Structure formats: structure tokens, C-alpha cells
Amino acid sequence: MSNVLAFDLGASSGRALLGRLTDGKIEVEELHRFPNDPVQVGDRLHWDILRLYHEIKQGLLKAKHQGIELQSMAIDSWAVDFGFIGKNGELVGNPYHYRDRHTEGAMDSLFAQIPPSVIFARTGIQFLPFNTIYQLFALKQANSPWLQEGNRFLMIPDLLRYFLTGEMHNEFTNATTTQLYNPVEGKWDAELLRMLDLPASWFGNVLKPGAKAGSLSHSVCEELGIPSIPVYAVAEHDTGSAVAAVPATESSFAYLSCGTWSLMGTEVDKPVLHDLARKLNFTNEGGVADTYRLLKNIMGLWILQECRREWEREGKSYSFPELVQLASEAKPLQSFIDPDDASFLPPGDMPSRIAEYCGRTGQKAPETTGEIARCILESLALKYRYVFEMTERLSAQRFQGLHMVGGGIQNTLLCQWTANAIGKPVWAGPSEGSAIGNLVVQWIAQGAFANIGEARKAIRDSFPVAVYEPSESEAWSGAYERFLNVTGFAE
Ligand code: ADP
Ligand code: LRH
């Protein structure tokens, strides 16, 4: 039996999942779960990086208290964010949240210096205003002291790994999301770094998922009273780990990783760098086993999360199951939003922004909690169809259905509406996709699985998959036409 521990840090919560592998069968147990609440300080929105490190240590302590002998551990998290380590080995400043407003306008300003076609040709990464490249450019423009004091650039899991092991490494899947990594050359893009005037010495050797990235340091082991264990680099980008956990039988499949974000696409052997991929703003993020994830970001359940936070501020508290129930009771297919409208990116009062969007597009704004939740979930399902069809077009394939993984699959209404919208079955599971992808890459590194295909088979045999068959096709086809019109995608 092999026990390994996965720390999966999502934008809304983190968890430590213990994985047990016995005769090819995987069992998981959630040892620890904690909120990941960003912290606003003055004008800046930060991650609470030291609290996250504290929670990782709590997870290790819980394993110890249960008498579990661990063979290894690994961390994955959301992408693009980073911190700097100074010459004295200490963290410089407190990492920013990618939704912080300091990047506003940075992408367009940088395009005046480096055309987007050049950036895409060199990196294959979609244009999102919060990509690391624009964050670094914004810091430069603001003359941030971090850039004087920083000696090494580490992304969130790299940083946490460094705190645990004392070793500094950059990990491949996350490195690709910076939009500074060249997937064809297989290294940081020296030319982009030069054009941006960023020191190449900040960016270290890039470890592939499955590489050993150190061991728990003496001081951590002493503090926690535990033996040292290997710390692996896995697909440290949570979406990379989620896709590794898709229990697909087909060699080519469509997936939707459904959490705070919705990430939809397919796996490819080589980055797709042609003009159509750039025009459709698809990305080629590094995956496990030398694959790439040809996918597109969709704003996802973030909008519902932020509505919930707003309602909480107003003194009305709803659980997600309650919101799903209220949505199911509201009138179907009334008003739609484009979830990816720029107004929904920053934190804030989403119910008002939805009303403003509907006003702007000549639709009646949803009013009740159930109507608002329904509008968000139906609009997501319709946007999924739009991106599903783009994925088919770009990869020149027809998919039989859609694999959904991530916490969002607990929303059975969303799974059903997604099947209705795309007119094909949805296969939902597992919900802890990222953590399970993290676990299996550790087992591949230990030789317990020969390859990712074998690991996916074990996931298939170990976790239930819920099947949603499409229904109400006429109503959803009509709704899709209206969705295309109000969002402007019909043009
Ligand atoms: P992340 O890893 O990005 O923080 P998760 O994968 O944990 O996100 O998914 C969180 C989302 O899952 C929430 O925003 C919520 O919409 C949905 N969710 C979680 N639990 C439930 C539930 N019991 N019923 C319906 N939806 C849920
Ligand atoms: C999902 C995710 C996504 C990134 C975003 C920053 O958690 O990693 O793949 O685009 O967060």
C-alpha cells in the first residue's frame, strides 16, 4: 500500500487529500479543508500565503495524528501568481491576487511594445489580463521595490515547496501559464524576457511533473515532529492536475474542469500555435506526460460565489445546495449574460453587474435570488456549448460527450443543463479532480503506475461517474440562438 498526500489549493478553498493505492485501487480521505480567503489591504488584493503555508503544516500534522506513514507529498494551486525570494532567502512582499486591479490596462500597454502575435507565437498562451507577464509589466511600470529586491521568481506552489524543502525550483505546467515560457524551445523565452527587461537569472530550472523537488527540511520535520518525506513536482497548475484525473477511455476527449473557473478544451501532443487558435484566444498550457492542454478559460462559478458573498454582506446566507434549489424553482431560459464579460472579472457586487449587463443588452434583469442563480448557471451552460464547438473546430474533431471534473459537478443542475446545451452526454466525476491528478502523478513518479493511461484507468475503476443525458433539446437550441444574439457572438 502506498500513502501519498496531495495539497490542492483552489481559489476558493484548499484541501489535503490522503491517497491510498492498494492493488490498483485508489481510496481517498480528506484530512484537512480550509478556506482560501484573499485579503484586501488598502488598494491591494493579496493571497494569504503564510496562512496557506500554515494550513499545509496542519495537513501534515493531521496525517501524523492519524498515524499515517506517508511516502511523499505534492502541492498544486491556481496558476499565474507568484512571489519573489530575496538574496537573504526570504519572501519579498506578499503575493498579489490575480484579480488585483494593478494590472488594469497593462496588457494593452505592453501590446504597444510587443505585438500580441509575437507573444502568442512564442508562448501559445491565451491573452488574459492577469497573466504573469502583464503582472510583471505592471510591477515594472509602477517601479515596484520587489523588482529591486527580488532574486528568484517562484510561483505559488514553488514558493510553498521552497518553504517546506529549502529548494527553489520552477515547475513546468505552472511556468507555461506565465506567458513567458516557450513550449517549442522547452524553456523560458529568453527573447521575451529581454524585450521586457526581466533578468533571466530570476527564472530557474523547470521541473516536469513527476520530478523529485526535494524533501521536507530538517527544520520543518523538527517543528512538526515528523520524518522527512520526498516532495514531488506534479502538475502544479491545478487545471493540469484536474485534466490528468479525467477518467477518459478515449485517447482524445473534451473536458471541463469546473470550479471557481471553468476550463474547457482537449489534450494535444503539441501546442497549436496557428492563427485560428490565437483569434479564438485558446491556450496551450503544459500538461502531464509532455501533453498540452488546448483550452479556454470561462469565468465559471466565480460569479455565483461572488453573488453569495454579496448576499452574505446583506445578511442573507445561502449554501450552494440552497442556491441550486432556488435556481431550479425559477422560470427557465429568461435572460442571459456572457460570463466572460470583463465586468465580471474583479471581485464585487455581481447581482448589480448582472442587472447592468441585462440592461445594456435589452433584457429584463433577474431579480430574485433564484432568478439570478438561474441566469448565471444557464448562461454558463450556453457558454460551454459555444466553447465546446470552438474546441471541436480548432482540434478538427467531434467529441461524443463531455467529461466534467471539479467541485462544480456537485451542482447537478449545472451538469444536466450542460448536457442539454451541448446536446451530448456529460460524464461527471471525480469532483476532487485536481487533488486526484496530483496523487496519481506522485504514484507514477514512484513507479506504481507505468503511465498516465494506467493512472486514468485506476481513477475510472475507483470513482463513480454520473451520466447526464441531454434533454429538452428544442428549448435549449432556441435559447442558444438568443444567447448568441444578446452576447454578440452571433456577429
Ligand atoms: P476551486 O478549487 O476553484 O476553489 P472547487 O473545485 O472547490 O473550486 O469548486 C467550488 C465550486 O463548486 C463552488 O463555487 C460551488 O459553486 C460549487 N459547489 C461546491 N459544493 C457544492 C454543492 N454542495 N452543491 C452545489 N455546488 C457546489
Ligand atoms: C483555475 C486556474 C485557471 C487559471 C486561473 C488563474 O484554478 O488555475 O486554470 O487560469 O486559475
Automatic annotation (TrEMBL):
UniProt keywords (A-Z) are: ATP-binding, Disulfide bond, Kinase, Nucleotide-binding, Rhamnose metabolism, Transferase
- Any Pfam family matching the protein: FGGY_C
Tell me which SUPFAM superfamilies the record gives: Actin-like ATPase domain
Occurrences of domain Carbohydrate kinase FGGY C-terminal (ranges): 254-445
Q: Could you state a single Gene Ontology molecular function term? A: transferase activity
> Which segments constitute the Carbohydrate kinase FGGY N-terminal domain?
4-242
Q: Which CDD domains match?
A: ASKHA_NBD_FGGY_RhaB-like (cd07771)
Record's InterPro entries?
ATPase_NBD, FGGY_C, FGGY_N, Rhamnulokinase
Asked whether the UniProt record includes Transferase among its keywords, one would answer yes
Q: Say which domain of life the source belongs to.
A: Bacteria
Name the family the entry cites: Belongs to the FGGY kinase family.
State what protein this is by name.
Answer: Rhamnulokinase family protein
